[in-house]
Amino acid sequence: TPTVGVLALQGDVREHARSLVESGAVAVAVRRPEELDQVDALVIPGGESTTMWKLAVAFEMFDPIQQRVKAGMPAYGSCAGMIMLADRIEGGIEGQQTLGGLDMVVRRNAFGRQVDSFEYDLDLPGIQGFRAIFIRAPWVESVGNDVEVLARAGDRIVAVRQGPLLATSFHPELTGDARVHSYFVEMVREL
Ligand code: GLN
């Protein structure tokens, strides 16, 4: 049984943990480097990527997470978490850093400029009709050759995978539908 951490600096920690448990993982909140050492994989929730970056630095978690990701730890970023896993971002604040790992450009608040939040039914590999909730959501502007596009909303890329890294623009923890978390836990089991 994989142990999956949920980065607990900000965001829907409890909801992510519930969906992970429903997917057959052990879920633990991760706030300190010692806790990160105990997990096989990490979920980075939504919230505010500028704040999450600053909190990660303040809690001395930024470098340890980046090192684990570089070493191949599976990670799943939702919304602000997607921004954190992007190698490059558009619309960031001055000096904003990401953990990186996913070879893509993500545009912050991209949908948010049009409408603050919305729901959209989309398909992912092996998942039909997932009700995705977008809140001031980013979209993926472009991806490198090794990035697999898993889902689009209209013509915008909203879910991607590159090896052990998964990211979605939307918040699957808010619907009580654990299929995206199950997809991630399955990735963790396979790696
Ligand atoms: N707009 C937020 C950001 O830029 C992300 C929104 C979210 O996580 N719901 O970090």
TrEMBL record:
<feature type="active site" description="Charge relay system">
    <location>
        <position position="173"/>
    </location>
</feature>
<keyword id="KW-0315">Glutamine amidotransferase</keyword>
<feature type="binding site">
    <location>
        <begin position="47"/>
        <end position="49"/>
    </location>
    <ligand>
        <name>L-glutamine</name>
    </ligand>
</feature>
<comment type="function">
    <text>Catalyzes the hydrolysis of glutamine to glutamate and ammonia as part of the biosynthesis of pyridoxal 5'-phosphate. The resulting ammonia molecule is channeled to the active site of PdxS.</text>
</comment>
<comment type="subunit">
    <text>In the presence of PdxS, forms a dodecamer of heterodimers. Only shows activity in the heterodimer.</text>
</comment>
<dbReference type="InterPro" id="IPR021196">
    <property type="entry name" value="PdxT/SNO_CS"/>
</dbReference>
<feature type="active site" description="Charge relay system">
    <location>
        <position position="171"/>
    </location>
</feature>
<keyword id="KW-0663">Pyridoxal phosphate</keyword>
<dbReference type="GO" id="GO:0004359">
    <property type="term" value="F:glutaminase activity"/>
</dbReference>
<dbReference type="GO" id="GO:0005829">
    <property type="term" value="C:cytosol"/>
</dbReference>
<keyword id="KW-0378">Hydrolase</keyword>
<feature type="binding site">
    <location>
        <begin position="135"/>
        <end position="136"/>
    </location>
    <ligand>
        <name>L-glutamine</name>
    </ligand>
</feature>
<dbReference type="InterPro" id="IPR002161">
    <property type="entry name" value="PdxT/SNO"/>
</dbReference>
<protein>
    <recommendedName>
        <fullName>Pyridoxal 5'-phosphate synthase subunit PdxT</fullName>
        <ecNumber>4.3.3.6</ecNumber>
        <ecNumber>3.5.1.2</ecNumber>
    </recommendedName>
</protein>
<dbReference type="GO" id="GO:0036381">
    <property type="term" value="F:pyridoxal 5'-phosphate synthase (glutamine hydrolysing) activity"/>
</dbReference>
<keyword id="KW-0456">Lyase</keyword>
<feature type="binding site">
    <location>
        <position position="108"/>
    </location>
    <ligand>
        <name>L-glutamine</name>
    </ligand>
</feature>
<comment type="pathway">
    <text>Cofactor biosynthesis; pyridoxal 5'-phosphate biosynthesis.</text>
</comment>
<comment type="similarity">
    <text>Belongs to the glutaminase PdxT/SNO family.</text>
</comment>
<dbReference type="GO" id="GO:1903600">
    <property type="term" value="C:glutaminase complex"/>
</dbReference>
<dbReference type="GO" id="GO:0006543">
    <property type="term" value="P:L-glutamine catabolic process"/>
</dbReference>
<dbReference type="GO" id="GO:0042823">
    <property type="term" value="P:pyridoxal phosphate biosynthetic process"/>
</dbReference>
<feature type="active site" description="Nucleophile">
    <location>
        <position position="79"/>
    </location>
</feature>
<dbReference type="InterPro" id="IPR029062">
    <property type="entry name" value="Class_I_gatase-like"/>
</dbReference>
<dbReference type="GO" id="GO:0008614">
    <property type="term" value="P:pyridoxine metabolic process"/>
</dbReference>
<dbReference type="Pfam" id="PF01174">
    <property type="entry name" value="SNO"/>
</dbReference>
